[in-house]
């Protein structure tokens, strides 16, 4: 159960040229950190109305169009890159590979502050207007369409779990057709244990790669001829994807200004690397309560951990539809 008093829905946001390379091992949909950062930027613009901020952010994708193409005779896809203007010497600069994508997403913000319904609806309109001048995952937000389905919505929540679920059953229909991004650390841990039965040295990275790639394996029976075997594609338990969820420290935490040429010399600095986990795209109609949808930022500077978490795996153990 979430501690939020209301859900603020920003539906059908069209984003052009969002960042499609969020980590060193994969490309695709932007990482959850891009959306939690977007929510933080909204909080900073509405500090008077949102004194307690947001309890989390939900991510639902309706369409995803990566800017890639497949050259003739090739099996792999490459990004469509822009040729920048020539330099002072008359020669074109070298390419800096930047993956971009167009997408349509709905964002759900869990609001902690109590607001009367009329004030909440007004706040929703103001936030929807404010994001028109913001960027999401490095991409430009296109002008809001005029149809009714793209207007911001305010959904008050009850204090008890059952009341929240009743409201959420109605709310989730506003997210269709669409898929919600959730975390599946439970499946990653289970698969790692399975791999270690045959290979005790298997790592979490081995389990992640084995779950998110296409695996062609032998010993698949031929329909109608059980004595003949063939190669086949191993089925996966859901729409699983590798997911950058944050950063882990590689160095000590340096004080403000100790490291030269940092972006902001007024805050502490640390060298980090990407943290990966397992994610899953789940049909929005399969969600039971808001807690399954929300992503939150957590940090443990003493351990060097800065990451996003989602409680979908935990709620599966106790939720019933």
Précis, in short:
This protein has 321 residues and is an alpha+beta fold. It has helices spanning 32-45, 117-130, 161-171, 185-198, 204-212, 312-318; strands spanning 6-19, 54-66, 68-69, 78-79, 100-111, 135-136, 139-141, 153-156, 179-183, 216-222, 225-233, 239-249, 272-283, 294-300, 305-310.
What do you see in this structure?
The protein has 321 residues and is of the alpha+beta class. 21% of the residues lie in helices and 34% in strands. It has 6 helices and 15 strands. A 6-stranded antiparallel barrel has the order 2-9-13-12-15-14. α4 crosses α5 (204-212). The longest helix is centred in the first third of the chain and has 14 residues, at 32-45. The protein is globular and about 70 Å long. The mean pLDDT is 88.
Average pLDDT value? 88
Number of helices: 6
Class by helix and strand content?
A: alpha+beta
Largest sheet: spatial strand order: 2-9-13-12-15-14
Instruction: Please tell me what the overall shape is.
Output: globular
| Number of E-type strands | 15
What is the straight-line distance between the termini? 14 Å
Report the portion of residues in β strands.
25-35%
Helix content range: 10-25%
Please state the CA-atom Rg, rounded to the nearest Å: 22 Å
- The unreliable regions are none
Order of helices and strands: EHEEEEHEEEHEHHEEEEEEH
């Amino acid at each position: 159960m979430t501690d939020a008093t209301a859900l603020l829905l920003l539906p059908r946001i069209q984003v052009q040229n969002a960042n499609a390379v969020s980590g060193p091992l994969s490309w695709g949909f932007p990482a959850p950190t891009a959306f939690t950062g977007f929510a933080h930027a909204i909080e900073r613009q509405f500090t008077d109305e949102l004194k307690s901020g947001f309890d989390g952010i939900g991510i639902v994708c309706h369409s995803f169009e990566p800017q890639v193409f497949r050259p003739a005779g090739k099996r792999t896809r490459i990004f469509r890159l822009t040729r920048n203007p020539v330099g002072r010497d008359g020669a074109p600069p070298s390419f800096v590979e930047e993956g971009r994508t167009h997408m349509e997403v709905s964002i759900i913000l869990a609001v902690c502050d109590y607001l009367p319904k009329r004030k909440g609806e007004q706040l929703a309109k103001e936030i929807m207007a404010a994001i028109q001048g913001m960027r999401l995952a490095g991409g430009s937000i296109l002008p809001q369409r005029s149809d009714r389905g793209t207007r911001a919505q305010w959904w008050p929540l009850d204090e008890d779990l059952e009341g929240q679920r009743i409201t959420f059953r109605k709310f989730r229909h506003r997210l269709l057709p669409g898929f919600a991004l959730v975390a599946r650390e439970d499946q990653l841990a289970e698969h790692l244990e399975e791999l270690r039965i045959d290979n005790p040295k298997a790592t979490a990275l081995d389990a992640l790669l084995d779950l998110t790639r296409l695996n062609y394996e032998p010993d698949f029976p031929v329909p109608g001829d059980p004595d003949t075997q063939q190669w086949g594609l191993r089925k996966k338990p859901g729409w699983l994807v590798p997911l950058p969820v944050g950063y882990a420290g590689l160095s000590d935490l340096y004080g403000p200004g100790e490291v030269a040429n940092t972006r902001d010399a007024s805050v502490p600095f640390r060298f980090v690397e990407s943290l990966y986990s397992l994610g899953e795209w789940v049909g929005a109609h399969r969600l039971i309560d808001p807690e399954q949808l929300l992503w939150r930022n957590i940090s443990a500077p003493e351990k060097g951990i800065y990451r996003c978490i989602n409680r979908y795996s935990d709620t599966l153990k106790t939720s019933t539809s």
